[in-house]
Amino acid sequence: MAKSRVKKVLLSEARIKRRINEMAGEISKDYAGRDLMVVCVLKGSIIFLADLVRRLKVNFTLDFIAVSSYRDAGTTGSIKLVMDLRDDPAGKNILLVEDIVDSGYTLSYLLNNLKDRCPLSIRTCVLLDKYEARKTPVQADYTGFRIKNEFVVGYGLDHNEAYRGLPYIGILTAKK
Ligand code: 5GP
Ligand code: MG
Fold this sequence. Notes:
Distance between the termini: 15 Å
Oligomer: single chain
Number of helices: 3
Bound molecules: guanosine-5'-monophosphate, magnesium ion
Strand order of the largest sheet: 4-3-2-5-6-7
């Protein structure tokens, strides 16, 4: 079973829960009295999104966006929009929710893409920040955990679509 290749639990379910409570509190305070359009980056962020929005104390709408990247093809940073929003972000306070920032290409691309569509404001909220791996300078407004440059799975994050259902975030063993 998938779990057998997880070498180490990096962030336990309880720790993730505590941190998301804090983040939701901070976001609710910052946006008090304002409406939010929460934009979830598919697919890895859905578990984080579900836990985060249930703790928000502001009114929000939800929308989804998906991108693909082609890092292996030598075109580092080549990102493509594969599924767009259904709602128009113009005039909205956007909170972009992403699972992890690694090179930063995905977050930069999405920020530029959304900024071009005239939102009233835009902020980013990421669960994990691999701060040592950045290839383009981008910093989230709300960050759950800063982690080392290791491949993590669980809590929505996959490896070839496996492990998304793990309630914690773990580090995979090397391939045999
Ligand atoms: P970036 O464009 O910042 O390099 O990459 C962001 C995307 O790469 C994330 O949204 C995620 O899909 C994927 N990614 C980066 N690091 C990891 C990781 O350690 N584990 C998993 N499962 N995905 C990762
Ligand atoms: Mg992602």
